[in-house]
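Request from the bench team (R.T.):
"We need a structural guess for the complex before ordering more NAP. Sequence and SMILES attached. Just send the tokens back."

Command: build protein-NAP structure.
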Amino acid sequence: MKLKDKIVLITGGNRGIGLALAHCFYDNGAIVIVTGRNEEHLDTVYEDNPEIQTHYLDLLDPSCYQNLFDNVKSRYGKLDILVNNAAVLFSGDFTKNAYTYEQISLEISTNVSAPISITKTMLPLLEGNGMSTVCNITSAVANLPMKSLPIYSATKAALRSFSISLRESLSDSNVRVVEVQPPLVATNMTSSLPGKARDMKMISPDECAQEIVNGIKRDKELILIGNSTKSLFWGSKFFPKLILRNLNKM
Ligand SMILES: NC(=O)c1ccc[n+]([C@@H]2O[C@H](COP(=O)([O-])OP(=O)(O)OC[C@H]3O[C@@H](n4cnc5c(N)ncnc54)[C@H](OP(=O)(O)O)[C@@H]3O)[C@@H](O)[C@H]2O)c1
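Reply to R.T.: structure attached below.
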């Protein structure tokens, strides 16, 4: 897919992988809109990068979704690439005191309900305009859940499943569905990881973004970034119990 003059919408683009993606798409000639819920952060993104459009969107407030649709429709009349990037992560031992009902609900709403509902809202803008793409950011834990991330792992497995069924539903349309499984990336999210995971080798958000954009340009359906993610993905197919046990020793 060529990116020049393509309209790209990235949820959670005020920092981390989302912001790096915004720069990378822009460098490839795309017109980029990022969403965020923190107006101060959004203003900073706009001041530092006036070439990137910003749009206030709290994913936990579905009443904002229609406004996002109207805004993109009135400005551009179409959408070429939707990146469902925003997510939250809580870690802890589910069998002990970790996880309130509120945290469980927040993690599921942000990581599952929101990307599915945003996709539903934006689909009419993606359909019927030449090749377009829905890109969902999942994780290696979508295939191999970690006991220290029980809800996060479940949400990424759900988003992976949705990506596969959506791809089937849209197989006769102009909309492609891409799933991305990044490795560990040095962002705010990984700074809250438990134990040894936090000390493991991580790539930068820019490196991750470059791989995602390259994969989209090459029309890949599943973008597995880095050797660790590839080993976990294929290991989960051929030696699921062994790989699961080793991963959960971390
Ligand atoms: N980092 C990794 O190692 C890694 C590995 C695999 C997969 N991933 C996935 O990659 C994606 C990006 O992760 P990241 O590491 O860049 O995370 P991050 O640095 O924590 O950034 C998360 C983004 O999501 C936004 N967000 C969260 N809740 C929101 C809400 N209710 N409404 C609007 N925006 C909201 C945040 O905005 P605020 O600033 O307003 O909170 C922020 O822009 C996520 O889907 C993550 O699961 C990350």
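Two things stood out. The chain has one domain: 7-247. Residues 12, 14-18, 36-38, 41, 57-60, 85-88, 110, 137, 139, 182, 184-185, 187-190 surround NAP (CB under 6 Å).
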